[in-house]
Amino acid sequence: MSATSTSVGAAGRPAVWTSRPCAVWSGVVALIRARNAGPEPAADRVVRRFGLVIGLVGSLAAVLELPEIIMQQRPVPPVWTLITVCVAFVMLPVLAVVSLLAGPRLVRTVAGAAAVGYLAGMALVMPYYYEVAEAPGLIWAHRLVMIGVLAAAVAWRPWPAGAYLVLTSAIPSVALLVMYDHIAVWYAVENFVRLAGQCLVFLWCVVHAQAAGARLDRESVIAGERAAAVAGTAARERERARFAVLIHDAVLSTLLDASRTRGTSPVLREQARRTLDQLDATRISGTDTELLDANSAIGFLRAAVHEVNSGIEFTVHRGGNDSELRMPQAAAASVAAALAEAVRNSLRHAGVPGRRVRREVTVTVGAGGLLVVLRDDGKGFDRGAVPADRLGIAASILGRMRALPGGAGFVESAPGHGTTVTLMWGSGAGDEAAGAGPTGSGSGDTAPKAVAMARRREWLR
Fold first, then answer.
1. How many whole angstroms separate alpha carbon 424 and alpha carbon 456?
2. CB neighbours (10 Å) of residue 46?
3. What is the pTM assigned to this prediction?
């Protein structure tokens, strides 16, 4: 009875020795999928794919050549053989693993180590050249030169990789000429040309594949900028047309009726009130409910800056989920107007005699909103010394952003230290925007500003 219960209990216990490898394998697969799921530049993806292929193929070639290596290295001390083989091939499986899990910079580093390691393996064969050469067939270290050349092509630029190709292809021929007196020069040259030609074909493929990836990235950036510029221009044209209609149908009509009417009338007062309400609604929230995507919003802001001064540097940083951004056109118009006013203020007041003032606009876009920063290294100013009736900052920049739902603005400056204007907008952030109201007014309180900045960073994720 006890034996039966023992056997049943043993059968019911989980097989730990099998579950642990399965858990490790599942974790590795999940890590690889997470690493390869996100967006990645084409040039980086090409580098990682070549690193994976070269690492796997090189490791497989080393395993297949192992019997030949053992036969050729039989007269050599086993310790020396082990060191030579490890130096030549140990970085190849590492290269395959790194290509799956790491970025292109680490892949290039490991590929360079693999190329140098194979070259070192060729050098370690030379002290026992005669013993190894007595075995039938070409010396193994001279037969697998292509592995080192491909690793060099992934690791370095074309010219260093080409120099590596020439060096590794010349070593077998030079060794023949030096070690054997009866070898003719033309035979060594023929051997060099044949080996270098074979490696050059694969080197050319790797180099041009990487160049094609880099070219694809450049064209994608250019196409995105063009699309953003076109979308921004179209949005601004629609905004101008809407304002033109509003000015014609409401403002000018009201002024014309007022000029023709003697005294005042309830109809004219009501018409004037409706016109003011329309203008105020346009300033605050806008009547156009059209939503702009990230490219359109960026183009809208870029056009606003370059309309004031086309020489100002405009940089865009995108989050991984920036394609989810949906920004009302009225909100984009408010941010663009505040940004344009900030640029004009910088051009008017930040100049330093005898020195060129550098101005830069940086836009960070995420799914939940955008962050716009205008920096200049001009003479700066003291916020406390600005008169209260100067409306450029108080009304046109901070007031406009404070009136925008989800918006906030800050101005930081000090004499001799330049000026930084920060404009932020986040979607679906009524409480956050309301909480940031005092900060947006430029009160200078550090704690509310830090809270608002932290909230905006959450929006941009």
1. 7
2. 21
3. 0.54
